[in-house]
Specification:
With 151 residues, the chain is mainly α. The chain has helices at 3-15, 25-29, 34-38, 48-67, 92-116, 120-150. It has a single domain (3-150), classed as Up-down Bundle (Four Helix Bundle (Hemerythrin (Met), subunit A)). It has six helices and no strands. It is globular.
Length: 151
């Protein structure tokens, strides 16, 4: 396996491919309801919904760095963490829309990474490319812990 294949494999394992280490990000979110996603473990702490959008945001941020996109062009206003659920919008439809945003940002990032691999810029970007996979795994673990605390 060459370095390019390894980066893509890490990206897949962190987000969607079945792994030996346990659930990846998408598996950690499977079956989570809007009510569960909105539940806070303690006042002032992030919930599953916010971690989901945080992950989507950083996929966007890495993609923006790869593509040279305009800062502040994320589909949601703000950066890093987004308060969820929005007042009066703790619905399954709103939750599924934000899950779809995560999926969309992942696919866009994957496409951007495929375009940059094999170019001179890839070496400079490498820590971000594998870092985003590690970021997914980190938050997958947090989400699994939050789910366990609910039961």
């Amino acid at each position: 396996m060459n370095a390019n294949e390894l980066v893509l494999a890490l990206l897949d394992e962190g987000y969607s491919r079945k792994t030996w280490h346990g659930p990846n990000l998408r598996q950690s979110l499977k079956g989570v309801t809007a009510s569960q996603a909105a539940r806070r473990p303690a006042p002032g702490r992030h919930n599953i919904w916010e971690l989901t959008l945080h992950s989507a945001y950083w996929k966007y941020a890495v993609r923006r760095q790869i593509e040279g996109g305009k800062r502040g062009s994320f589909v949601l206003k703000g950066s890093n963490f987004f308060a969820r659920p929005e007042k009066g919008k703790a619905t399954e439809a709103a939750w599924h829309a934000d899950l779809a945003l995560l999926e969309s940002e992942h696919r866009a990032l994957e496409a951007a990474i495929r375009r940059v691999l094999g170019t001179p810029r890839a070496k400079k970007l490498l820590p971000r490319l594998y870092g985003v996979a590690f970021h997914d795994i980190y938050h997958a673990g947090q989400i699994r812990l939050l789910r366990r605390l609910m039961s």
